[in-house]
Amino acid sequence: MLLYATLISIPNGPPTGVDHSAGDARLSCEDEVSRRLGEVNFPFDPDVRYLNGGTYHLAGIADAKLAQETVRRNYECTVQFVGDDEYRVDSLRVWQSH
User: Fold this and answer.
1) 91 - beta bridge partners?
2) CA-CA distance, 5 to 34, in Å (whole number)?
3) Which residue, among 30, 28, 14, has the nearest Cα to 64 in the 3D structure?
4) What is the 3-state secondary structure (H, E, C) of 10-42?
5) pLDDT one-digit tens code per residue, 33-63
6) What is the gyration radius of the CA atoms in the chain, in angstroms?
């Protein structure tokens, strides 16, 4: 019964045959994080969830080089596929990890 409950709680991915992808949404989000923080490294793959209607939610970690040190930051963003291989970052939140 536990396996069944786990399987039905997994969110659906994007429908097949669409022109958008989680990978492209990730690149758009990471580009925006880089614009905000400057020199940045993404040490881990982000959590990417497909919401619906071409919208993705991403959450991850970025290591930003500030002055002489590297500061770890968390980020979340919402990315919308707008057509013709174009994505728009609708929201981005960045905060410092402890």
Assistant:
1) 78
2) 38
3) 30
4) CCCCCCCCCCCCHHHHHHHHHHHHHHHHCCEEC
5) 999 999 999 999 999 999 999 999 999 999 9
6) 15
